[in-house]
């Protein structure tokens, strides 16, 4: 009987999820419709919600690194050491004086927010999981394979290595996302050089391996949740690629797991958040850390907006093998991870719900 009951529950959940997705209204549409309780497939088990109501140790803060003099020799060596320390101890850090004008940052947030706040009927025409033309807009890319859904909608534009079909990008945020892609490309190259130097590598090593060729700009909207202690904005996971550059609005929600504590990564106007991805942890043979993080459900009336630029290699690199960089290995420091192709890596990523992907490649 328990098996029959579980099967029936699974079928009912699958039916409810499909009906929700077919409606194309997203979680923002649910909020705008005036709901006061969330659908049951968004309700998380207690173990997923550990610590979301408790006090977070404010004494633990991710480092803030000033990049203003990164091209001057004496300052650069100090910045390289700061980045190495942050990437190896926290996996997350803020950057300021990074070269992207605050006006562009503010305009990008405003444009993505404006899209997510369009009327439900107007947004329906953009709702599409196929990713055709390099553009995707839906609720939870893993909606149909995850055990439980999370309270966010996402607009994603893959801008490199192949330019997207910009006509498919909503006009209200098209030019801003195009500019954000350009800005994060330049900043990503600077960060890649500094991270390479932190590993005592040639500064163009990641570029040589085409590790910054893929670029996806992902605009998340975490609207108000009427029952924020029953769900999450995004569940605990690590980012899969090399590097993530995150722009977040003033509404809090991002948390990183440092040791056993979940700490708040508070927005800082004019600053960007940088975090290490699984692929860079593997390539650095564990020197740099890809750290679990999540976003709590939003209890504020105003939506939380975040825009992540994910940087990494393209899976179309064919037979190119990725793994710990040979120059970082020795008898004293053997490889902790096996080699793989990007095709295998991304197949693994898309075959399951968000998780800690790096564990799959441990030796």
Helices and strands in order:
Elements: H1 2-23, H2 26-32, E1 64-66, H3 73-89, E2 92-96, H4 102-116, H5 120-124, E3 135-138, E4 153-160, H6 174-198, H7 205-208, E5 214-222, E6 232-237, E7 243-248, E8 254-258, E9 261-264, E10 272-276, H8 278-283, E11 293-296, E12 304-312, E13 321-322, E14 340-341, H9 342-350
Helix pairs in contact: 3-6, 4-6
Helix and strand sequence: HHEHEHHEEHHEEEEEEHEEEEH
Could you report the average pLDDT, rounded to the nearest whole number?
93
Largest sheet: 8 strands, mixed
Strand residue percentage: 15-25%
Q: Name the helicity range.
A: 25-40%
Task: Walk me through the structure.
There is one protein chain. This protein is α+β, with helices and mostly antiparallel strands and 363 residues long. The protein is built from nine helices and 14 strands. An eight-stranded mixed sheet has the order 1-2-10-7-12-5-4-3. A four-stranded antiparallel sheet has the order 6-11-8-9, with no helix packed on it. A two-stranded antiparallel sheet has the order 13-14. The longest helix has 25 residues, at 174-198. The mean pLDDT is 93.
Keywords:
four-stranded antiparallel β-sheet, globular, 363 residues, eight-stranded mixed β-sheet, alpha+beta
Summarize the structure.
With 363 residues, the protein is an alpha+beta fold.
